[in-house]
Design a protein that fits this description.
Layout (H helix, E strand, L loop, with lengths): L6 H4 L5 H12 L5 E4 L6 H9 L4 E6 L2 H11 L6 E5 L5 H8 L4 E7 L4 H5 L25 H7 L2 H12 L4 H12 L7 H11 L2 H4 L7 H12 L1 H15 E11 L2 H15 L18 E3 L9 H6 L7 E7 L21 E4 L2 E4 L2
Parallel strand pairs: 1-2, 1-4, 2-3, 3-9, 4-5
Antiparallel strand pairs: 5-7, 6-7, 8-9
Length: about 350
């Protein structure tokens, strides 16, 4: 079942004004460019393009449906917006293709999007029965059904324990393997029933829906979210010009930890602690703009209940990253898709 409403009626961007305030000093210069690394339905980008009439935004998303909806929403801004079908760890490849050496802002709004949750057939929600898909890019890759039906029991348990912090991971994994021996799992409703049967009744009454942690873990595994984020945050920092800012909204502890560690590495001297004078090459190249992680206040929660778990962090580039601190990329970024022009709004889609 598909929601036919336009994007601006379906999506309220989380902490929009706070994001704009944090990005404002970096986007003040004429000709400033920002990358919205998780475009979604375009709410944050619309806010930026409206608040800063001189700014251009490059919007990345692996979800072709999101690119289509955001493209319609942002069409009035003409060539100030460019949408690209890409995962955010490919930020450097995208900017190289567009001939942009550095940008003044990067915004990342992590996790599953409103679009993906609201589209029942995508299989992200445990609240309604749907195919076990969970791919953010529905054009490629393994599905949640593939993971559940082919992974060994110990690997399923590890995924649920690590990515979902699920206490009953071994029991759920064991019951999944037993169920698939009779017939392959195909529907989210089947999985929810297995989870319910795997968790003691007393534990099902606390901590929200009993399937929440398992669905989170499967989504992370299907989309490679954490390994991608580990590459994407350092690469995004490297895309910033001096004075540029990066703002990241995370929604669960594993994501937030990766962001926190990357920011801390840049905001801390890399010199040994016993040196009497810190060499310039070891001074911090980032400044933390937020004190720890900021959360949504009561007004934001009333406006947007999905902001309940948000953790926002921001940092500013002080100088180029010293060579010994540059990110090491162990595998190539995922390629962007071929360009296709549509009216004034150039969009790269599959």
């Amino acid at each position: 079942m598909s929601d036919e409403r336009p994007a601006d009626e379906r999506h309220v961007p989380v902490l929009l004004q706070r994001c704009l305030d944090l990005l404002a000093p970096a986007l003040a210069a004429e000709g400033a460019v920002m990358v919205d690394s998780t475009l979604g339905m375009g709410g944050h980008t619309e806010g930026v393009l409206t608040a800063f009439p001189h700014v251009r935004v490059i919007g990345l998303d692996r979800d072709t449906q999101a690119l289509e909806l955001a493209g319609r929403r942002l069409a009035p801004f003409g060539d100030r917006f460019v949408g690209v079908h890409a995962v955010y760890d490919a930020i450097r490849d995208v900017l190289d293709e567009l001939g942009i050496p550095a940008v003044q802002g990067v915004l990342m709004d992590l996790g599953v999007s409103s679009l993906q949750l609201d589209e029942v057939d995508r299989g992200f929600s445990y609240a309604q029965d749907a195919p076990l898909d969970m791919r953010m890019d529905a054009t490629r890759g393994r599905t949640a059904a593939d993971v559940l039906n082919t992974y060994e029991e110990r690997d399923l348990a590890r995924i649920l324990r690590v990515y979902g912090e699920e206490r009953f991971a071994p029991r759920i994994a064991r019951n999944v393997v037993a169920a698939r021996a009779k017939a392959p799992l195909q529907r989210t409703g089947e999985l929810v029933d297995i989870i319910r049967a795997s968790i003691p009744a007393a534990n099902r009454k606390v901590g929200g829906h009993p399937a929440k942690r398992t669905f989170q873990a499967l989504r992370i595994e299907v989309n490679g979210e954490l390994v991608t984020l580990e590459r994407a945050v350092p690469e995004s920092i490297e895309a910033l010009s001096v004075g540029g800012r990066i703002v990241v909204e995370a929604y669960q502890s594993l994501e937030d930890r990766i962001v926190k560690q990357a920011f801390a590495a840049g905001a801390t001297t890399s010199a040994p602690p016993d040196l009497p004078v810190v060499p310039e090459t070891h001074t911090p190249y980032l400044r933390l703009v937020t004190r720890g992680a900021e959360e949504a206040d009561d007004a934001e929660l009333a406006l947007n209940p999905r902001s309940a778990s948000v953790r926002l962090r921001a940092a500013e580039r002080l100088r180029p990253t010293p060579s010994h601190m540059l990110p090491r990329t162990n595998e190539p970024s995922r390629p962007t898709q071929p360009a296709r022009t549509s009216g004034k709004n150039r969009r790269r889609t599959a």
